[in-house]
């Protein structure tokens, strides 16, 4: 039994590699935008959206590889009832960051493991991030440096990079901000014998 990561996220692959987790990365092969559109049409919460998408990714591959553990993940940035998609343009990234400035938003990271096509474990973790009320000049310079790299990041920042300049306080796990509730996942992988206890 091996561990398959049903993700194309560079951040998730890097976290698992750095933590010494043996895994095989594979694309989940789902139409995430269509699934997200259907789910958000129902007025779903950030928590339930992240959980549902993580389970969808894990289930799809688990049906192909029933003998393995398949990890699916999803991350949602939200402020109140507003859910932020990954910015499709520099202008959209600027609009999102201006909406988050001076506010405390949530990063919700969900992970689901499937085996034999069925969920056997899940964990959802939330980090709270207080973003400072930065100047327009700062925002322009930040996006000059970080666009388009942050186009693939929920929230429009890389916390391990210049994104740190956006924040005055973060409550919660650094790993959760990066897109994976890593420590609870490692606990489960030890229970299943994938990692040494
Ligand atoms: N390097 C970095 N990446 C971040 C940060 N915050 C969020 N992200 C990334 C992690 C995920 O790749 C992405 C969240 O989007 P999704 O959960 O939809 O995952 P993504 O589409 O990238 O990959 P996947 O659906 O798992 O194949 O944002 C950060 O602070 N630093």
UniProtKB/TrEMBL annotation:
Quote the catalytic activity from the record.
Answer: a ribonucleoside 5'-triphosphate + H2O = a ribonucleoside 5'-phosphate + diphosphate + H(+); a 2'-deoxyribonucleoside 5'-triphosphate + H2O = a 2'-deoxyribonucleoside 5'-phosphate + diphosphate + H(+)
Q: So what EC number does this one have?
A: 3.6.1.9
Q: Which GO terms describe its cellular component?
A: cytoplasm
Q: Where in the cell is it found?
A: Cytoplasm
Q: Name one Pfam family in it.
A: Maf
Which keywords does the record carry? Cytoplasm, Hydrolase, Nucleotide metabolism
Function field: Nucleoside triphosphate pyrophosphatase. May have a dual role in cell division arrest and in preventing the incorporation of modified nucleotides into cellular nucleic acids.
Q: What is this protein called?
A: Nucleoside triphosphate pyrophosphatase
Organism expressing this protein natively: Parasphingopyxis marina
């Amino acid at each position: 039994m091996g561990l398959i990561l049903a993700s194309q996220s560079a951040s998730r692959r890097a976290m698992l590699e750095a933590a010494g987790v043996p895994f095989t990365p594979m694309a989940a092969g789902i139409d995430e935008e269509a699934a997200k559109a259907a789910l958000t049409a129902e007025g779903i919460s950030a928590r339930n959206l992240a959980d549902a998408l993580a389970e969808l990714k894990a289930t799809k591959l688990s049906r192909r590889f029933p003998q393995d553990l398949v990890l699916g993940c999803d991350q949602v940035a939200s402020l109140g009832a507003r859910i932020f998609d990954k910015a499709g343009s520099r202008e959209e990234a600027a609009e999102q960051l201006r909406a988050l400035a001076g506010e405390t938003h949530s990063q919700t990271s969900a992970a689901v493991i499937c085996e034999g096509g069925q969920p056997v474990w899940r964990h959802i973790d939330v980090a709270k991030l207080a973003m400072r009320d930065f100047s327009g000049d700062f925002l322009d310079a930040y996006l000059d440096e970080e666009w388009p790299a942050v186009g693939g990041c929920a929230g429009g920042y890389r916390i391990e990079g210049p994104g740190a300049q956006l924040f005055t306080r973060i409550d919660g796990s650094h790993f959760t901000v990066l897109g994976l509730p890593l420590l609870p996942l490692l606990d489960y992988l030890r229970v299943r014998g994938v990692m040494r206890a």
